[in-house]
Specification:
The chain is α/β, with parallel strands linked by helices and 408 residues long. It has helices at residues 17-30, 47-56, 68-80, 98-112, 127-138, 156-165, 243-256, 281-297, 300-318, 325-337, 369-372, 385-402, and strands spanning 8-12, 33-40, 62-66, 116-118, 143-145, 181-184, 189-192, 222-229, 232-236, 239-240, 261-267, 273-279, 343-350, 353-360. 39% of the residues lie in helices and 19% in strands.
Length: 408
């Protein structure tokens, strides 16, 4: 498809410098109509200003969509049913938002008769892959325009100069601007760039936006009671809440207790290592609680199989394969495992730590006190049975030892 074949483009639009320049650049380079789409997934106050900026640039079709409930219900919650963590630490706050944005981009393209979409992800990061894999999975014939892979505007100064030459209004924030590249949604806020490009440099305390430092958190612990139904949180301290309301509340409670800070060097899908910092207070609480209720309600082998599958599932999400058949297959297995993950978990939050203070499940608990007790079990468990069990499991090692083989 040539430039002249692009009839209309749906642009993932934040209203910031990059996407405002992209908007005008698309008009200049492709001589096409642009539709803007701004997703409200809990990132904060910049959503409505994006509408005014798009209108000021002459855009007629402007989509501002509140996707917070869909984001948590259909993307965050299914991911947490798997206890998903990438490379041992990262809770995938940015990764899990991209398939939803890609889905809505394609829906709007279909609604508006657009044959193209565009995004502001650079050619060095993961997001370009996530957006585009999702888009192609949902509409194979879509044309994708990624300006950062086409233009020569490779610095902030070049972007500002382009904006000035085209009359693009740029809001210059008063005071000291943040040196970090940040991305926020209801699950987390991320920080990259600035001093973080040196893996040896400790983040400045002033960088963190959602949480107090653990040292400054209250000396009085906070207790929470979370109610689970089929692996999802449905109540907080007895109050029924929607998925988005639950995550927003847990973010607030976790933040004041110094919960959820993370500083990691991760392996990007494109091949480079990247240092990033994240705040995920609500997600950190959710993960701890979910593992606690599963410890009571999941069969041992099911729990272990889930743990074995989780790294693969996490990589699929991190690398942009949410809409792939293999992720969907894994999701069906994960969802099936949650049928009996019902009950309550009591947590203690204190100065950056989340500890389990109790867990309870009525009919779905597999914990049998009569068998587990160290007191008289009244014949519920015959301890003599353990001798044959151990000998049978030792058989192959006993045979090897008799043959004179040394242990590895």
């Amino acid at each position: 498809m040539s430039k002249s074949d692009v009839n209309k483009v749906v642009l993932a639009y934040s209203g910031g410098l990059d996407t405002s320049v992209i908007l005008k650049w698309l008009q200049d380079q492709y001589d096409c109509e642009v539709v803007t789409f701004t997703a409200d997934i809990g990132q904060g106050d910049e959503v409505e200003p994006a509408r005014k900026k798009a209108a000021a640039l002459g855009i007629r079709e402007i989509y501002i969509d509140d996707l917070r409930e869909e984001f948590v219900r259909d993307f965050v919650y299914p991911m947490f049913r798997a206890n998903t963590v990438y490379e041992g630490e990262y809770l995938l706050g940015t990764s899990i938002a991209r398939p939803l944005i890609a889905k809505r981009l394609i829906e709007i393209a279909n609604e508006t008769g657009s044959n193209s979409i565009s995004h502001g992800a650079t050619g060095k990061g993961n997001d370009q892959v996530r957006f585009e894999l999702g888009a192609y999975a949902l509409r194979p014939d879509i044309r994708i325009i990624a300006p950062w892979r086409e233009w020569d505007l490779n610095s902030r100064e070049a972007l500002l100069a382009y904006a000035e030459s085209r009359g693009i209004p740029v809001e210059m924030k008063r005071g000291k601007s943040s040196p970090y590249s940040m991305d926020a949604n209801l699950l987390h806020i991320s920080y990259e760039g600035g001093i973080l490009e040196d893996p040896w440099a400790e983040p400045e305390e002033s960088m963190w936006r959602w949480s107090v430092s653990p040292e400054e958190a209250s000396d009085i612990p906070t207790y929470l009671e979370l109610t689970f139904r089929s692996g999802d949180i449905v109540e907080v301290d007895g109050q029924a809440l929607s998925p988005a309301e639950t995550l927003a509340l847990l973010n607030k409670i976790g933040g004041v207790n110094g919960i959820g800070r993370l500083d990691i060097v991760e392996n990007r899908y494109v091949g480079m290592k990247s240092r990033g910092c994240y705040e995920t207070p609500g997600g950190t609480i959710m993960l701890k609680a979910h593992r606690a209720i599963e410890s009571l309600t999941l069969d041992r082998e099911v729990a272990h199989l889930k743990d074995e599958m989780m790294p693969r599932y996490a990589s699929l999400i991190y690398n942009g394969y949410w809409w792939s058949p293999e992720r969907k297959m894994l999701q069906e297995m994960i969802n099936a495992s949650q049928a009996n993950v019902n009950g309550k978990v009591r947590l203690k939050l204190y100065k950056g730590n989340v500890t389990v203070a109790g867990r309870y499940s009525d009919s779905d608990s597999l914990f049998d006190e009569a068998i587990a007790t160290f007191e008289d079990d009244q014949g519920a468990y015959n301890q003599q049975d353990a001798e044959g069990f151990i000998k049978l499991n030792a058989l192959r090692m006993r045979i090897a030892s008799r043959k004179g083989r040394k242990a590895d």
